Amino acid sequence: MPHPEAARLLAIDAGLRAGLAVYASDGRLERYRSTNFGAPGRLKKGVYGVMNEVDGLRRVVVEGGGPVADPWVREAGRRGVTLDRVQAGVWRKVLLRPRDRRTGRDAKDQADGLARRVIEWSGAPSPSSLRHDAAEAILIGLWGVLEAGWLPELPEGLRPG
């Protein structure tokens, strides 16, 4: 179990079905999952509980906009944690080769493989299955820890090329 006072980052691929990933301040992935809120009202209520599960929450990174991202943005603001909003094209440019992001479909396919490498590099539990929203949340979080300076650069084996 991680130290409760350690700083953590929560990454969200926003949607009614959302991908979630939690990173420690050493830049390593601790846990990830996909969750189906099912309805806007349950999403609004669920955000509070998700953030409460993250001891030492200091940063939130959200990909997405509109009504599925707004509850995350509001709750991060209410808690006074640093918030980054990122578009898929921004984090993909940092983490994926140009040929791997020609189309959204190509990028999603590549995200799965890279997310699995992040899981392995981090020593996080291996997935029985990995939904694309959880894979993207893992990569959104990886971009977030780079932006925050929690990792000075992408580790060998995670670099595009």
Sheet with most strands: 5 strands, mixed
The portion of residues assigned to helices is: 40-55%
Radius of gyration: 15 Å
N-to-C CA distance: 34 Å
The quaternary organization reads as single chain
* Total domain modules: 1
What class would the helix/strand composition place it in? alpha/beta
Write the H/E string, N to C: EEEHEHEHHH
CATH architecture: 2-Layer Sandwich
CATH class: Alpha Beta
| Annotation field: number of helices | 5
What is the overall pLDDT average? 93
CATH topology term:
Nucleotidyltransferase, domain 5
CATH H level, superfamily name: Ribonuclease H-like superfamily/Ribonuclease H
- Residue stretches low in confidence (pLDDT < 50, at least 5 long) are none
Q: Could you tell me the strand content as a percent range?
A: 15-25%
Q: What's the total count of β strands?
A: 5
